[in-house]
Amino acid sequence: MSTLERFDREDAIAALTAFIRDGGYSPGDRLPPERELIVSLGMRRNSLRRALEALELEGAIWRHVGKGTFVAAKGGDTALSSLAGLAKQVTPVQLMRARLALEPAITREAAINASGEAVAQLKLARDRAVDAPNWDDYEAQDDLLHRAIAEATGNPLLLALFDQLNQVRRAVAWKTVVRTSDRPPRTHTSFAEHDAILDAIEARDPGEAHTAMRKHLGSVSARLFEET
After folding, report:
1. 47-52: long-range pairs with CB below 8 Å, 24+
2. What is the pTM of this model?
3. Distances (CA, A) of 11 to 120, 157, 168
């Protein structure tokens, strides 16, 4: 049986902060990968990720996809500090309405501008979400899929806007979702919705891509706010 513990958010942040301090990490140093941090800290992956997200919002660390997690300069990043303050003001409903305003438009742009390589990356992210062995991995792959759609626009401003929205999303206080299985079932509605989004992007159909993403986010919103 695993000895990893489920830390609450504040305890996880404190443990990770102490690890960075006691480990002698300086600004610019790269932290160990998640799998090593999980073992070193004795915490579950979900607890670690919440702590990483919190420290990133505080400007204590910064993460680069494909390169790792790095210690930030002392004093933090003012933009990240601003996002941390914003996250404390935004409700889950407001966050979902912001996603509904931005992400369908991003998906429309992806359908117009995505390269063949970008479409291949989208399919890979989609398949990894389907094959995820547990909910934590599924959520991580789902996150990467949505970011890959923003990347597929080829527009750095849209990607930056998505990243800022996503950082706030990670920090907003959501209700606890009760999972009745170890991993998403094959009938999980998001899988078919992801297929529809990618099909529209690959077909270069911006209108359908916009509609498919809006339907997907509406479905996500219904699960979060309407299920009992």
Report:
1. 47/5, 47/6, 47/7, 47/9, 47/12, 48/12, 48/16, 49/136, 49/140, 50/9, 50/12, 51/7, 51/9, 51/12, 51/13, 51/15, 51/16, 52/16
2. 0.70
3. 40, 35, 21
Task: Determine the pLDDT at residue 167.
Answer: 80
Domains of the chain in sequence order = 9-79 (1.10.10.10), 90-225 (1.20.120.530)
pLDDT given at position 110 = 98
Low-confidence residues of the chain, pLDDT below 50?
Answer: 1-2, 228
DSSP per residue, the chain: ----B---HHHHHHHHHHHHHHTT--TTPBPPPHHHHHHHHTB-HHHHHHHHHHHHHHTSEEEETTTEEEEPPTT--HHHHHHHHHHHH--HHHHHHHHHHHHHHHHHHHHHH--HHHHHHHHHHHHHHHT-SSHHHHHHHHHHHHHHHHHHTT-HHHHHHHHHHHHHHHHS-PPPPPPSSSS--TT-HHHHHHHHHHHHHHTT-HHHHHHHHHHHHHHHHHHHHT--
Using the CB atoms, write b or e for 139-168: b if 16+ within 10 Å.
bbbbbbbbbbbbbbbebeebbeebebbbbb
- pLDDT at residue number 2: 47
